## 1
Amino acid sequence: MEEEATRKLQKPKNEVIDTDSLAMSALPEDANAAPGFMRMTFNQIGSEASVASGTAVPLGLIIRPLAPFGMAEEKVGLVNGQTTSGVMRCSKCRAYVNPFMRFTDNGHKVVCNFCGNVDPVPTEYFCGLDADGRRYDVAERPELRCGSVEFIAPAEFTNRHPQGPIYLFVLDVSFYAVSSNLLPMWVEAIREVLAGLPQDPRIQIGFVTYDKTVHFWHTKSGSAMLRMTVAHQLDGVAVPTPSGIMTNLVEQRETVNTILQTIAETHATDPVGEACVGAAMEAASSVLQATGGKLMLFQASIPTVGPGKGKPRDEVRLYGTDKEKTLYQPQDPFWRRLGMACVQRLVACDIFCYAQKPLELPSVSIVSKLTGGQIYFNNQAKPEDKQTLIMNLRRNMSRNQGWEAVMRVRCSENLSISDYYGNFSMQNDTDMDIVSLDCDKAMAVQFKYEGKLPKYVSFQVALLYTNMNGERRIRVHTQCLTTTSQLSNVFRGADVDAIVNFSLRQSLQACLTSTVQSARDALIKRCVNTLHVYRKSCATSSSLAQLILPESLKLLPLYTLGLLKTNLLRKASEVRSDERAFLMAAFNSMPIKMVMKYVFPTLLPLHNMEPECGLIGEGNEICLPTQISASSEQLDGTGLYLLDTGMSLYIWVGRHCPPDMLLDVFGCMFDDISSQLPVLNTELNQKINAVTTQVQNMGGYWRPCEVMKQRHPGESKVYAHLIEDKSAPGYNMSYVEFLCHVHSQIQAKMR
Ligand SMILES: [Zn+2]
């Protein structure tokens, strides 16, 4: 599914060996961490600030430390025990041992590839060297061969006994959640997902509900007795002991089901119109304060009473003013305080929200952002969205994740980290504290130059975390790249996907500190500047009439246009602040591959697939048809297409599809096709279902698939994502027009 983690980086070439010689030629293929784990904006790095700044793109690193299982995971070698004093590290800069550290003096000394410091090799780690300077034990030591390894953490890295999975569900039972039938849908979905969880005896489940008061649901161990207590005082809710609230799922599955059923029944009638969201979250985080765990908030109403209460924002009046940025910030300092309290208590917060009316998500979302959580945003409250909730909740609770994580990035001397991007908190200048980190999350850092770089530079990500089995681990990813003094080489090594991911994160910052409009202007300016400096310094043709793009960045204008057409960067007034708060949180932690789906929606033709498509192929995955450009010109009235926008999935059906194909796929004629893709016993239908399921399972959000008929109501939803068209909302230019616009801006700068 996630082939990106297996794509090989170019191994640095063994060019002129200088005093920093690393004997690159002797290193195995996977000495560098796979790009699925860490990816730089450039694979060859400018040797000086003046060279690097010549690209007008920052030197940045996108990190997805827990990239999915499968091929990538196999490349993480486990290292069990090292030296008596712990894992071997440089005594000066504390970098972890890696394939680029060099052993000298017959194996008695080790030279750090980050700071050049020379340390004696501890006696128990000593090994002799062969004629090429390699240790004889390389084959037995993954940390000397693999760019990605995991160490069993020494005891000093464990502050307390690692906890198992703990989930406290916090459910809105106020008027809107009940009257729109959301509550029974949530309850059924939670029950179904809990029933399918593995029989892990460590899983603890608990429930808190809220309307104008907070309700705690107690059980008595070993009995079916159930009790609800109500906290009427909202400031500083008196919290009962967690032992009565948290229930062992495996031992008391029936009790958990009874609680869920009772919650739905108790609140089915006479719902209360007020919602104390802040008090409920505060109380829930107090319940978990001794153990940590996950707070799963289900929200359908704006916080109206208690701490953090807010009112709908006057969005229209603020757009375009210097107060626009306040629209995306919490209304009350309570929310940031609550977020930091959750960080202290090791409580992560995921939010499932249903926003038919304003929810004040810019406030509530900060708790999720500070703790590394995830937000699931539903624009409308549709009870039939149960399947989407089940799929998302299941993935949320079963994907690979870590707890109590601390991450640090190290780089060679003369580089330093100038900025951090992602959903986490920092209590010092170097460590990212991430209460809960999963395989779908990525962070980024930006580097700045402090001086001239040597021939090779190294980057290392060290993540200390508790894994799914409750084991404390240190996962270390290392990459070593070559530097160059030639600007043209830097351009050649540009990674456009990483640059787009980084650029999106810069745009998020701009929205939070300025206006959406200025974020859009800055984005276009960055694209023009980069292509202009290339034109000026590297292009051989002198004709100004031609738009010249470096090979590695030829898609930069297309992706820039795609970014401009995402809901995040559409005109401020076209997107509600709740949705934008969600997108800001989501994009801030999204890995490269998922971002690309939003920036460049995937259009797959289904009517003329190659024979192997829809069948299991290499890597045990379903073969997908080849992607075509996201343009309405591609939609043929005699064809069928799948469009994946990252947030939604559509099958577009042309009016003139051959009747026998329609019968094969839908079992009926054009006029009778419904919005759901049926499951039929025909080859084409099964292949299309297989392709659709494969696409649905890719990425951090599961999306239902909606069938759209050509020239039928709602079809515009498809066109809105064909970013190469002029008609796609958000930025009134087609791809061709945008290229012309970029070209004319470059010409203006050249004159
Ligand atoms: Zn060092």
Note: The radius of gyration is 27 Å.
## 2
Amino acid sequence: MILKDIWLDIKAVQERDPAARSALEVFLLYQGVHALIWHRFAHWFYCHKMFFIARLISQIARFFTLIEIHPGAKLGHGILIDHGCGVVIGETAEVGDNCTIYQGVTLGGVGTKKGKRHPTLGNNVMVGAGAKILGAFEVGDNCSIAANAVLLKPLEDNVTAVGIPARPIKKDGVSIPKEKKHVSLEEYEELKQEVEDLKRRLCELEKKE
Ligand SMILES: CC(C)(COP(=O)(O)OP(=O)(O)OC[C@H]1O[C@@H](n2cnc3c(N)ncnc32)[C@H](O)[C@@H]1OP(=O)(O)O)[C@@H](O)C(=O)NCCC(=O)NCCS
């Protein structure tokens, strides 16, 4: 089972990283793949309640790959951790199949309470470089989280979210129109007054010339 997972991780890199050449090169030289291999073993020990060995493996993996995956995290198949440096995946995080995670991504929690506190990513989710997804909520299938976004709320399937805090800008590939700001009656009266003042001053200046 673990060997099959490792093979799918290598295939994922070959399919989705245009720079990848052979399976052997990916196996030997891609630290994202190494982190996933270490994690598959660490997670096995975690599931069999050998928490110290599980944490030890995860710390060794972090030392060699600069990718920190808690042994409790549940990762699917065909995950691509590209470049990888600085990726942090928390204990109760879940990552679906065929997700792509770039360098500097955090799947983290907010606060210190125990229990489910990290996000759950659906299948085919792309998390851009430096993005942070914080909290125990779900991100739907086929979502894209922009580079450097900070996502604090759940997303439906097929949504692209950008910014801090991240907001949906596309659904099913179609742009979501930006919210128009409504002007209150008070603001409208103030603006009207300002325009009248400006008009009056303009007339005065024209008369002086
Ligand atoms: C979010 C992302 C997937 C959007 O891709 P897209 O669907 O092609 O979207 P567009 O390029 O049409 O951009 C749509 C809007 O989002 C904005 N946007 C895109 N990326 C953004 C980002 N990272 N932060 C803030 N706004 C962003 C664009 O400026 C545009 O705004 P506008 O409509 O006001 O002009 C992509 O920009 C991204 O961030 N990918 C991550 C790539 C990455 O991390 N690569 C690492 C390689 S090492």
Note: The first strand starts at residue 68 and ends at 69.
## 3
Amino acid sequence: MADQDLSKYFRIRMSTLHPEKVTVFDIFVQVDGRLLLYLKAGDALAGGKIQSLHKKDAGDSFYVRLEDRQLYRDWVREEMNREDLDTFSKAKILRESSVAIMEDLFENPDVNAALDTSRPIITDFVHLMEREPEAMQFLISLSGHDFYTYNHSLDVSIYSLGLGKALGFNAKDIEELGVASLFHDVGKRNVSLDILCKKGPLDEAEWEQMKRHPQYGLQILNQHPNISDAIKAACFEHHESWSGNGYPQQIKGEEIHPFARIVAITDTYDAMTTQRSYNVPLKPKDAVEMMREKLSGRYDPEMLKAMYSVLFRMKAAS
Ligand SMILES: [Fe+2]
Ligand SMILES: [Fe+2]
């Protein structure tokens, strides 16, 4: 009998599993609100079955026990090292496996634990990028295709990793930037769900609350020791504007931490190109054009130029 306490499990996407490969953890499926053992450790799924499951898997049906999380991470990492798997499949597996972990991350009230969990994810991305440079282009092409809000942070991270690399950051800074990007909106935990999920435009009072998320984020991060100033800055300063009319401090230009200047770009780009329930997404070219023309004063011009090169090298790959 499966334990029915959902807090003892984390979600996985079936598309992260490879057909015919034996799993080393039990997989459970949720049917009519109940968890049932779906695949025993030591068994493998037939290829055709995985295909048909992909279509049904909206991201909330398949679970693995929390205590098997490391086994699952190791499993994904092993896939990343396979010689016979193409880069696109690796990029897809890594992204999908991270999305599932992301969901749990954002529900975890312990920010320190969430940061610890997120580091190996970012490291996996950085390693894949180093070993197979074309992976970045595939990762970018996989981003922005659906509207789950937890994907936003992951996609902002992926874009930021690409931008950090294009700007010549060293590996250590790129990793820190990836983590910082994942947590840039952590302050939204303190904004009411009604506001976060509202389908139409926000009224003045709602907007005031929404605009406080950088402060809330800083307060949350300050409660935990060992969180770097760079991570805090990315969170607190990502809505500042190059020309000085952003919020909350209205600092400008190089007063804004480089990580925050990067997130300002990748965050806006992701918001513009992602399908949300109430807007029509812009095409990548149109989004960047708009950022370069109508919104140009908001961003570090050198970084915006680099973002252009990151994105439009992607076209050739996708
Ligand atoms: Fe934000
Ligand atoms: Fe954001």
Note: The radius of gyration is 20 Å.
## 4
Amino acid sequence: MTRKTVRIAMNGVTGRMGYRQHLVRSILAIREQGGLDLGDGTVLWPEPVLVGRREHVLKAMAEKHGIEHWSTDLDAVLADDTIDIYFDSQVTSAREDAIRKAIAAGKHIYTEKPTATGLDGALELARLAQAAGIKHGVVQDKLFLPGLLKLKRLIDGGFFGKILSIRGEFGYWVFEGDWQEAQRPSWNYRSQDGGGIVVDMFPHWEYVLHELFGRVTTVQALTATHIPERWDEQSKPYDATADDAAYGIFQLEGGAIAQINSSWTVRVNRDELVEFQVDGTEGSAVAGLRNCRVQHRSSTPKPVWNPDLAATHSFRDQWQEVPDNQADGFDNGFKVQWELFLRHVFLDEPYHWDLLAGARGVQLAELGLKSSAEGTRLDVPEISL
Ligand SMILES: NC(=O)c1ccc[n+]([C@@H]2O[C@H](COP(=O)([O-])OP(=O)(O)OC[C@H]3O[C@@H](n4cnc5c(N)ncnc54)[C@H](O)[C@@H]3O)[C@@H](O)[C@H]2O)c1
């Protein structure tokens, strides 16, 4: 086996996503498993270079995990020819400029979503990347969740017949920050800092709907800022200017209708933090992050509406769990997508979760906000480079 080092500049690793999912659960996890076996006698060995604004935090993180290199100078890191890939999990508002520089420096790009704060910027990044001939990928982690993988298996196996509708319920209570610390960063609740649940979640809904059920052709959304005042990381009150809930309806190519509630102001009375119910002519399924249960038409009970009688059975018990059927279990979705991206870079394997796919997510968020502001249903035009 030959070991090939791949140097990855990781910008934004001090953040929630950058640290936990990308550094620890993906890149360091690949190192712990001995690298990524490319199957051609080569093992890829990822070497992260931590990039950020606060030197002492980067240094402490590097020491904790035995990482040799870190820097607060992004330009210097990008000028380093030994760096192969630029990864970005900074706050959304800082992303576009940094990726632009990294493309100009000839690095391959892997990035969190949303790729930019507007469609024009997102498309421009995709065009620049194509012109530069670099490889590029955008995180679309939900596709690699066990629950959604099981749902995809059901679709591929023809379980549903004709798919009629999808109901998504996403959300949980994010504390305001006064009497209990908020569990999400405060910039998420300020639109001037790139926050808002539409910008955060519609990019996810775009690729989930598109890949599983059909391209989104129209969007109609109503957003709300239910909690107008919150408390930040320094316990200071601030005006929450961004939407903290969005109620969206999406028409899909092929005729299915999706309705997805996204909310940081809802208390969970579900099995998982996100659940999608899919109803088809032959059967229905409810998929969450990890689990998926089904009800076939042959075992569908016949409820009769009668409010005078108490329900005699539990409707939930009439569903059947979809098995994992995966001997070694499901790996972390972020890591799975990183591995596919590294194979794309080094083996040229196909990879369609790219900056153009990322731009579709930004487009849906932009149109969702416009739809809410105008009180209209909007077409979602197909975009291309
Ligand atoms: N794929 C997913 O499921 C998922 C989930 C949550 C967030 N995200 C995305 O990941 C990105 C980071 O989100 P997060 O929740 O980790 O945020 P976070 O606030 O925890 O981290 C932000 C990172 O950006 C850095 N940063 C750079 N410039 C900054 C600036 N001007 N102000 C503040 N911080 C700055 C911070 O130091 C930190 O490392 C966002 O773009 C978000 O949309 C993706």
Note: The mean pLDDT is 97.
